[in-house]
């Protein structure tokens, strides 16, 4: 085992850890980045699957994601717009396929009124939430003691309206059932994007993609860091005191003045600490868990839905695939659809064989796009729940009552140990933008203390 000394050791070579390392190095500090995987990027992963370039992890860029946009410019990366021309598709409770334009689904007038009313109510509440300190809201504890599903039930008796609004937070973002997280956690998710309206606007939240794939951000950051990035080096033990840390990983030991744990909170307890982390940290990590979603990629000979006048955007809380989009890769003449199966629905299909699961998912896509959707030339499921160094998707969130109780301590340093990842962000929470923001903030705190 090699032994090296650095000013800061960073555990995790995702966007947050690599951003922090970059900022620290700019300030003249020495760094070592230890990554458990055989690649950099964490939950960003662009890969070739059977000849198709797929974004297995995160992929979209929103107009308000300043930190990410600045990083893309710094790295010389270009973007292209998601295809969105034509009619969108909605499946009703009866299974009827309806088309629409704009943001509001083609639902009965009463349901449409209730959906608009719920969006207005949520936007008003979100405007009162500081995404960096949601626990400071006067009603934080009250909002954290009621599930998002129950909160919606107190606002309207229209089930279709509740299911559609719940889908944008539960299925599309936190990837947990709406009964499993609080109204406060839902408000944080919306506040992190600027408003609830932004979350329901697919043209906003899923605006652009990066040419060459979003994983280029960590890949290019790692290139700049060179030999300071160590792959296949999972950290097993972290010894620490007020004077510094010693990170013991497979094949390398790093002694440093500071450590940054830039990994999902659910992995923090995978490391053995000498001495153990304080009681508060031990407790709060037990109240965080990852969501679960299958990201489905289906590649066809042509983007046949475009020829029929459809955008590729499709939604339904009644379908196995609750949302899907045109996801054609820049320069590829073939057509790619991406769909999502979340939380309990994902649990159910993983009880099936791979062949049965594929058939069920493609059948759901065919309800939106017709029989042509049944026959992709490439099919792939991104299953982050089985990834050893992730354990779920898209991000960690607190259980009921956990955000108000523990949120303020989520990023509180423990001696020389700091914490940094998208799961801990305010603005940009669970997005690459948030990972970069927190990475910059964590680096700045260490630079100030060094």
TrEMBL record:
Its cofactor is FAD. GO terms for molecular function: oxidoreductase activity. InterPro entries: Amino_oxidase, FAD/NAD-bd_sf, Flavin_amine_oxidase, Flavin_MAO. Transmembrane segments: none annotated. Keywords: Oxidoreductase. The keyword Oxidoreductase applies. This is Putrescine oxidase.
């Amino acid at each position: 085992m090699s032994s090296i000394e650095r000013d800061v050791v960073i555990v995790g070579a995702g966007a947050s850890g690599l951003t922090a390392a970059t900022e620290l190095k700019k300030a003249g500090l020495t760094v070592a980045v230890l990554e458990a995987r055989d690649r950099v990027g964490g939950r960003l992963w662009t890969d070739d699957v059977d000849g198709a370039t797929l974004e297995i992890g995160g992929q979209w860029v929103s107009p308000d994601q300043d930190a990410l946009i600045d990083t893309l410019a710094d790295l010389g990366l270009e973007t292209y717009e998601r295809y969105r021309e034509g009619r969108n598709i909605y499946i009703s409770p009866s299974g009827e396929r309806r088309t629409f334009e704009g943001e509001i689904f083609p639902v009965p007038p009463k349901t449409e009124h209730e959906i608009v009313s719920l969006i207005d109510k949520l936007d008003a509440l979100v405007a009162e939430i500081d995404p960096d300190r949601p626990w400071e809201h006067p009603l934080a504890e009250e909002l954290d003691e009621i599930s998002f599903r129950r909160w919606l039930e107190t606002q309207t008796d229209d089930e279709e309206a509740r299911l559609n609004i719940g889908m944008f937070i539960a299925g599309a973002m936190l990837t947990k059932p709406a009964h499993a997280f609080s109204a406060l956690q839902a408000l944080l998710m919306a506040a992190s994007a600027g408003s609830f309206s932004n979350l329901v606007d697919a043209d906003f939240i899923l605006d652009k993609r990066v040419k060459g794939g979003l994983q280029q951000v960590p890949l290019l950051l790692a290139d700049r860091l060179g030999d300071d990035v160590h792959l296949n080096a999972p950290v097993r033990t972290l010894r620490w005191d007020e004077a510094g840390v010693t990170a013991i990983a497979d094949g390398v030991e790093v002694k440093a003045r500071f450590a940054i744990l830039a990994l999902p909170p659910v992995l923090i307890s995978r490391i053995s600490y000498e001495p153990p982390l304080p009681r508060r940290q031990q407790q709060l990590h037990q109240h965080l868990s990852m969501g679960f979603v299958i990201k489905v990629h289906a590649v066809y000979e042509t983007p046949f839905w475009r020829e029929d006048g459809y955008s590729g955007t499709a939604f339904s809380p009644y379908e196995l695939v609750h949302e899907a989009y045109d996801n054609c890769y820049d320069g590829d003449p073939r057509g790619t659809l991406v769909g999502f199966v979340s939380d309990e629905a994902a649990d159910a299909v993983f009880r099936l064989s791979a062949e049965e699961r594929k058939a069920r998912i493609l059948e759901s896509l065919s309800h939106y796009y017709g029989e042509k959707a049944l026959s992709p030339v490439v099919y792939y499921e991104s299953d982050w729940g089985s990834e050893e160094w992730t354990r779920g998707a898209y991000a960690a969130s607190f259980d009921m009552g956990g955000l108000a109780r523990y949120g303020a301590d989520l990023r509180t340093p423990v001696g020389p140990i700091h914490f940094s990842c998208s799961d801990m962000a305010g603005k940009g929470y669970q997005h690459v933008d948030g990972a970069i923001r927190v990475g910059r903030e964590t680096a700045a705190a260490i630079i100030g203390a060094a």
